[in-house]
Amino acid sequence: QAQLVESGGGLVQPGGSLRLSCVASGIIFSDNPMGWYRQAPGKERELVAAITSSGITNYADSVKGRFTISRDNAKNTAYLQMNSLKPEDTAVYYCKATRYNLWGQGTQVTVSS
Question: What is the pLDDT of residue 30?
């Protein structure tokens, strides 16, 4: 059964850091582009960062220079390192296996003092 499981969310103060993980199973992870999305209350889901199977990355303007997406194909895992977090980064974060149109269940990130 194909699935993605996110972890690493939580409550952090402004300026802090978190690292999200997304573990894939039941898919051929290594040749699949991956994306991290987020959805804040009352807003549409938006793309935060994406990485191709060869490691090419792109980011939303709002997170450039603060967030880093990466992948470890040996572990079937995608990561999102989030630094210098701001209250406006508060949202549920989802990973997506693009080729399979497969979503994880989401992990809550709350940035608040």
Answer: 92
The predicted pLDDT at position 15 comes to 98
What does the alpha-carbon distance between residue 78 and residue 11 come to, in Å, rounded to a whole number? 21
Alpha-carbon distance of 33 to 19, in angstroms, equals 19
Q: Which of 74, 35, 40 is closest to 57 using CA atoms?
A: 35
CB neighbours (10 Å) of residue 38? 23
What digits encode the pLDDT tens for the residues 17-71? 999 999 999 999 999 999 999 999 999 999 999 999 999 999 999 999 999 999 9
CB 94 within 8 A of CB 37: yes
Could you tell me which residues are beta bridge partners of residue 47?
A: 37
Please name the residues in contact with 54: beta carbons below 8 A apart, sequence gap of 6 or more: none
The residue ranges of DSSP E strands in 9-112, in sequence order, are 10-12, 18-25, 34-39, 46-51, 57-59, 67-72, 77-82, 91-97, 102-103, 107-111
DSSP code of residue 13: -
